[in-house]
Amino acid sequence: MPPPGSQPSTPPNPPHHPHDESGVEWLRGEGAETDVVLSSRVRLARNLTSFPFANRASSEQRQEILDISRSAVRVAGIADRTLWLNIHETSPADRALLVERHIISKQLQRGRAATVGEDPRGVCVSLPVERVSIMVNEEDHLRLQVVRSGLALDEAWRQADGIDDALESAVDYAYSPRLGYLTACATNVGTGLRMSAMLHLPALKITGDIEKVKKAAGDMCLAVRGFYGEGSEAVGDLYQISNQTTLGKTEAMILADLHERIIPQVIEYERLARKTLLTKRSLALHDQVYRSLGLLTSARLIAAEEAMQHLSLVRLGICTGLVKHLSSKTVAGLMLLVQPAHLQRTVGRELDQDARREARATLLRERLSR
Amino acid sequence: MPPPGSQPSTPPNPPHHPHDESGVEWLRGEGAETDVVLSSRVRLARNLTSFPFANRASSEQRQEILDISRSAVRVAGIADRTLWLNIHETSPADRALLVERHIISKQLQRGRAATVGEDPRGVCVSLPVERVSIMVNEEDHLRLQVVRSGLALDEAWRQADGIDDALESAVDYAYSPRLGYLTACATNVGTGLRMSAMLHLPALKITGDIEKVKKAAGDMCLAVRGFYGEGSEAVGDLYQISNQTTLGKTEAMILADLHERIIPQVIEYERLARKTLLTKRSLALHDQVYRSLGLLTSARLIAAEEAMQHLSLVRLGICTGLVKHLSSKTVAGLMLLVQPAHLQRTVGRELDQDARREARATLLRERLSR
C-alpha cells in the first residue's frame, strides 16, 4: 500500500482503470434514505487567478494549469490513494468509462471542439472508492466533486469544503470580494457550488406526479436532470435535483434548502406514491415489476435504455418488498454495467451495437437469475 | 358406456359440458403438417324442404325443425356417442364455452336479434372427441361440421359426405337440380360446402409477407379470417383460409384446390419464412420467442389477446426448435384455456375482467413453468 497522499506509479495512466461496480460510491447503497436516494453530490467550481478561463487558454497555458493543479492536489492530499489521469492521453473507451462512472463530464471527455488534436486536461480520483474527484480544464480550471452514497449532502459538503481549503492553501483562486469565486460561466459565480441528489422516482413516474415535482422544482429555481446530467433523459427513472443559484446565497443556505427541506420532501412524495401503488394498485404494480424481471431474464437482445427502464421497475419491486431474492445494490450495479463502455470492458472486447445488445442481455440473464 | 348411437341421458343439457382442452379435435396436434396446420374443417349447409329458412321461420316452426333434426341425427347415427344441447336452454357461460371450442358459431350463440326471448336452436356434438357437430337453426336449418387435426380436408370431407348422405336418407333437403342445395344466403347455394384450414402463420406475420398471402388468397376467391371466424382479428397469428365459391364447382374441385394446391403452398411459404428467420435473423427470433415466454411466465395480469400473441411466438419457438421444454400441444391448449369462458370454467367461478386477467396470468405461469 502506498503511503497517504502518494501518487500512482509511472506510467500515470494504468491500462485498466477500475471498471466493475465495486468502487463506485453512488452505487454502494449505503447511508440514509437509500430507498429513494442513490447518492448526494457536491461540486465546487474554482479557477486559478493568473490564467485565462480554460476555454480561452492556449494549449500551453492549459498544460501549465494542469501541472499546477496536479502539484496542488498532491500537496493538498485529497485522499489516501488517488489516481491521476491525463484525459487527453487516455483512450476513447477509458474516457467513456469515466463518464459512465460519473467521474468526468461529457465536456471533459469531448474536450474543446475548436481544438485540433487533444487539449491538456485531466482528472484526479480517490481510490479504491471513487468518492472525490477533481477535473482540471473542464469549463473551469478546477471542478472538485465529492459524492456520497444515500442522502448525505452535509457530509459531502464538509469533505468538499475541507479539500477546497487545502487546495486554496496551495494555489491562488480567482476571487472577487464582491462576487465571490469567479467562474467561466456566470451561472456558477459566487459560491461556485452545486449540490445535487440522484433520486430514484419510479412511483412518481407511474402515477404521473413526477411532472408536479418537476414544476415545483422549477419554481424553486432547482434543476431536474437525467442520469447523465444536463440534457440527458431520465432513463431508469433516475433524476438529479440540484440548486441553480450560486450567487446571493451562502453555502449553508443552499445546503439547508436542499438537504433539510427539498430533497426530504421529494423522498416523502415518492414514498407516498409507492404506498399508494402498493395499497390501491398492488396487482398492477406486481405485474409491472415481474414483467420487467421476466423480460430482463429472458431477452436475448436489449438496448441500454430499455434495460434501464426494466431495472428501475425491478428496483422498485425490491424497495416495496415485492421482489425478495435480489438486492437493490445488484440492480444499481447493473444500471452501470449495462452502459456501453462498462459492458465492453466487462466482456473484455470492443463490440458493435448489435453485439452489445446481445452481450447486455446475456449479462443481465446471468446476474439476475437466481 | 352408452351403446353406439345412443342419446345422452335426461336432462338433455348436463350441467357441465366438457371444458378442458382434451376433447378438442383442433388442439390434438396430430396428423399431417401440424407445424403449420392446426386443423381442417368441412362444413355443409342444408335446409329442410317444407319450412321457411330459419331466419324467417316462426318459433313454432323452428321448434319443429329442431325436433325433426334431432330425430334425423339419431337415425343417422353420426357418432358412437353424442351430446345434444338445446342452445336456447343453456346458460350464457355454456354458450360462450361452445363458441370458444368452435362447436357453435357466434350467430347460434346470439340467436335471432329480433326475437323476444329465446328461439329454439340446438347443436349435436360427437364425444369424447368433438370432431363432428351439427348446428340446427343457425343461418341454415342444418350446419354440419367435421373437424380434423392437422391437414386432413380429404378425410374430413369423406366423413362429412357420409354423414350428409345418412341425414339425407332421414329428411328431405331443399334442393334444386339447377342450383344444387338451397341455402339461406346466396353465397352458400350449390354445394353448401365450405372447407377451411386453420393455419399458424407467425413467421409470415413477422416478415410481413402475410399481406402477400392475403392478397393472393383474395385473388383466388378465398377468404382469410381470424381465429374466431368472420370479422375476427387474427389473434395469435391464427388464420382460417377457406373457399368462398360454392356454385359452379364440384366438391372434388374445391377439395383438390385447397387440399392439394393452395394450403400446401401457404405451408411452404410459412416454412420458408421460418427458415429465413432462423438463418438470417436467428438472434432476433430467439429474442422475440424468449421475451414472450418470459412475459407469459412473469405477468400477474394479462388480457386474452396479449396472451394469444405471446403464445403464438412460443409456439413458433417450439416449431423452430428454439424452445425444447414445452410441447406445441400445451401451447395450443392454452390458446383455448385463456379465452374468457374457458378460463372461468377452469377456475370454477365467474370473474370480472380484472379478475380474469389475474386468473389468466396465474394459469399461464402454472402451465408454462418447468
Provide a descriptive summary of the structure in words:
- 2 copies of one chain form a homodimer.
- In chain A, helix 7 (251-280) packs across helix 8 and helix 9 (304-319) runs antiparallel to helix 10 (328-337).
- In chain A, the strands form 2 sheets. In chain A, strands 2-3-4-5-1-8-10-9 form an 8-stranded antiparallel β-sheet, with helices on one face.
- Chain A has 2 domains: 25-274, 2-Layer Sandwich (Creatine Kinase, Chain A, domain 2), CATH 3.30.590.10; 281-368, no CATH class.
- The first copy, chain A, has 370 residues and is α+β, with helices and mostly antiparallel strands.
- The first copy, chain A, has 12 helices and 10 strands.
- Chain A is globular.
- Chains A and B meet through helix 8 of A and helix 8 and helix 12 of B.
Poorly predicted segments of chain A: 1-15
CATH hierarchy, class of the largest domain in chain A: Alpha Beta
**Distance N terminus to C terminus of chain A?**
37 Å
Quaternary state reads homodimer
What is the H-and-E element order of chain A?
EHEHHEEEHEEEHHEEHHHHHH
What's the count of strands of chain A? Answer: 10
Largest two-chain interface = A-B, 16 and 17 residues
Q: What spatial order of strands do you see in the largest sheet of chain A?
A: 2-3-4-5-1-8-10-9
Query: Judging from the principal axes of the Cα atoms, what is the shape of chain A?
Result: globular
CATH fold label of the largest domain in chain A: Creatine Kinase, Chain A, domain 2
Q: In the CATH classification, which architecture of the largest domain in chain A applies?
A: 2-Layer Sandwich
CA-atom Rg of chain A in angstroms: 21 Å
Mean pLDDT figure of chain A: 91
By secondary-structure content and strand pairing, the structural class of chain A works out as alpha+beta
Identify the CATH homologous superfamily of the largest domain in chain A. Answer: Glutamine synthetase/guanido kinase, catalytic domain
Largest sheet of chain A: 8 strands, antiparallel
Whole-number count of domains of chain A: 2
Number of helices of chain A: 12
Strand content of chain A: 15-25%
